[in-house]
Amino acid sequence: MITPTDMKFHEPEDPSAHLWSETNYFSFHIPEMKLNGTIYSLFLPTLGVMTSFIHIWAGKASNHQQTLYTDGRAQLPIPVGQDLDDYSLANGLHVKVLPNNGGNRDYQLDYVGYNDSALHLTFRGLMEPYDIQDPSMDPLAQSGVATWSNTYKNGHFDMTAHVTGESRLHGKSHQVDCVSTMDHSWGARAECNINNMSWFHSSWDEDRTIHCIFMLDPHALGESCGQFMHGYVLEGDQAFGLKPGNGIAKREGLMQESLDIDVADIHDRTFNFQGLSIANNQCNAWPGLCVCHSLMEWRLDGDIGFGERQDLISLAYITSGGNVG
Description:
The structure is a single chain. The chain is mainly β. It has a single domain (20-319), classed as AttH-like fold, CATH 2.40.370.10. The protein is built from two helices and 20 strands. It has helices at 139-142, 315-319, and strands spanning 20-30, 35-44, 49-58, 69-77, 86-88, 93-97, 106-112, 118-125, 130-131, 155-169, 172-188, 197-204, 208-214, 228-235, 238-241, 246-252, 255-264, 270-283, 289-300, 303-314. The strands form two sheets. Strands 1, 2, 3, 4, 5, 6, 7, 8, 9, 10 and 11 form an eleven-stranded antiparallel beta sheet that branches. Strand 7 and strand 8 form a beta hairpin.
């Protein structure tokens, strides 16, 4: 179970371990502009440093030069005396947990960047944070199946939120009103030779969201998504854990183009939904990863929704043809 204390830094298993990490991830989209934005922060508290990446793009972008906006900082100091529930960074990013909903569901995110660009976004959680280690939430945790890798053995949650506010890019403001999913994780994480994963969500307004984590083999182009690891279907304010599912992914190179997914929840209700990429980009927010990132248009029973998909692919895996140990 996730509590307000999990919005703060966690005590490292080994205070001298340089790999101990905490992450914050937020995103938003404006479907009519085919625009997707991400805000990702990686903290290394035992070293006192962190990275912070803000990427915003529209349509099909194959590199940073084709994005609308990017601000990547590889080495920022972790502010002394601040915690993850209220921190301000040297790049102009301020994130604060709001006291509403028990203090573990709502966030305010403000960022002032360069060339008259800024973000002012409120994330209001539509659910309790989904703890992939909690047997009362996740069927795989209930069955004793380990999480997708030791990366998340210490802690990880996903939470779908209603996102509202403003995205100002190079002097022009755009209103944001969407449903997206954020996450937070903590534990020791390697920078090279990392397990691959596919993390995605599809939202049909506030009525329904389906969120999934699959393993991923980027060399299996046009084939299975890989092993299902975790997920939930959110209806209203109730999240129901998903049982193992399957899917077919089609790509152009490593970049995802379409996805066809079948999953069932704990009540044996089945969901078949399809996604088509309408905006994509490649970024490297984590040193040893290539992140193929798409805004997808999703269809479920004739209804159209939107949400993002991230294929996080180990660079060591790619350059070794999958033969890494």
